[in-house]
Amino acid sequence: MGAEVLSDSLDTKCKCHGVSGSCSVKTCWKGLPNLDEIASDLKSKYLAAIKVTHRLVGSRKQLIPKEMDVRPVKETDLVYLINSPDYCTPNLHLGSLGTQDRLVRSAGLDEAPRDQEPEQGGRHQTMDPEGINPALGPKG
């Protein structure tokens, strides 16, 4: 999906060369928009993703929306068959310990790393400068 979004977002850019602004030679190339535009397009597709199911049509499987009030699936839509697991809560069946009580670190370009709470809950924990959380041990 990402490669398709990149390919679809390519723009042709041209520059003229010549004496006194004449366009005796024209150079053109394909260029990408800035990363924010690409990321926004991908996020829009992700947020509009359609849950689908298989339906046999003759000998072929066809993807149809699971919900009846959703428009038919187009070739450019992002679709999924099953919901993604919730990695925020522990799930031993999936081998996920979850993110609750896990330290999340974030650093801006002009600031020292600081501790932040995970977006999906969990508690704020502080670390000493060595990166040791007294409750969890080194790099805990």
From TrEMBL:
Residues 111-127 have a biased composition (Basic and acidic residues). PROSITE patterns: WNT1. Keywords: Developmental protein, Disulfide bond, Extracellular matrix, Lipoprotein, Secreted, Wnt signaling pathway. One of its GO terms (molecular function) is cytokine activity. Its main location: secreted. GO terms for cellular component: extracellular space. The keyword Secreted applies. Coiled coil: none annotated. GO terms for biological process: canonical Wnt signaling pathway; cell fate commitment; neuron differentiation. The keyword Oxidoreductase does not apply. It holds the Pfam family wnt. InterPro entries: Wnt, Wnt_CS. It is found in: Secreted, Extracellular space, Extracellular matrix. Residues 103-140 are annotated as: Disordered. Ligand for members of the frizzled family of seven transmembrane receptors. Belongs to the Wnt family. This is Protein Wnt. The lineage of its organism: Eukaryota, Metazoa, Chordata, Craniata, Vertebrata.
